[in-house]
Design a protein that fits this description.
- With 294 residues, this protein is an alpha+beta fold.
- The chain folds into 3 domains: 4-98, Alpha-Beta Complex (DNA Primase, Chain A); 110-179, no CATH class; 186-293, Dna Topoisomerase Vi A Subunit, Chain: A, domain 2 (3-Layer(aba) Sandwich), CATH 3.40.1360.
- It contains 9 helices and 15 strands.
- A 5-stranded antiparallel beta sheet has the order 1-2-3-4-5, covered by helices on one side. A 5-stranded antiparallel beta sheet has the order 6-7-8-9-10.
Amino acid sequence: MVSIPELMSFWGFSPTSRKGDFLHYRSPLREDRNPSFWVNTQKGTCGDFNGDRIGDVINLAARHDHCDIMTAAINLADMFRLGSFTSASLRERERQAATPTTTTTRTSNIYITHVQPLQNAALLQYVQERGISTDTAKKYLQEVYYKTSNGDTSRQYFGVSFHNDKGGCEIRSKYYKGGTSPKTVTTIKQGSGTVVVFEGVFTFLSCIEYWNSLNKTIPYDVIVLNSLSNIDKANFANYATIKLMLDADQAGHDAADRIKAHHSNVINIMPQFIPYDKATKDYNDFNDYWRKHI
């Protein structure tokens, strides 16, 4: 079975600190500028300092991908080329997930109820705090309202959404980081022979703002991975040059090496802005760079 740290690394998260058997990360489930997610490496469990006890690696994958236990297990087996899980073990996990206990967290499914142009004042303030102008945000993001089966199903939430190539979307707000299936990349074509690859939506939007500050526009095609786990879903065929703007952390460095191993026309331009030896846990992506230099 894959470990939680291995899955976190696959998603592009590196531990910010370690204390004994505990690793600390930024949460993969919500916006988290101050690392609040913990992993107990001895017990193979994880949770959040806000009191949310998630459970083992399959529970975490189910929560992250907003799917049931069986689907999460199958997805993990596919991602890590693991041996098949037995039907009996999966049925037992589903039974445990459905049994109310003080430590079991139900899997979460998002139901989109409404999508509209971005105009909510709280969301506009959120994107502005991330260094993104209203005009840029309205061009690339939408305002989405959704419900979740985890908790009060009558309660409605909202966030900004960034749609991918298969109709799923990444949802962000000041308090939430997640999305809907299917999970894949977002491709923005402009007929260029060069593509720029970003890890997440806010690094992409920050680069838009950077070019705007130079009175220029990005002349290249763009692929936003939305997660490092989507690298294999990106289509780099027919591009003469691949420019990488992945995060300046170990996961981003490893992902860049992975792309370079399969393509000879790769240029990593992120070190021009944040050299790897200058990156910290609070300063390691282009959104961090842009907000510091606004």
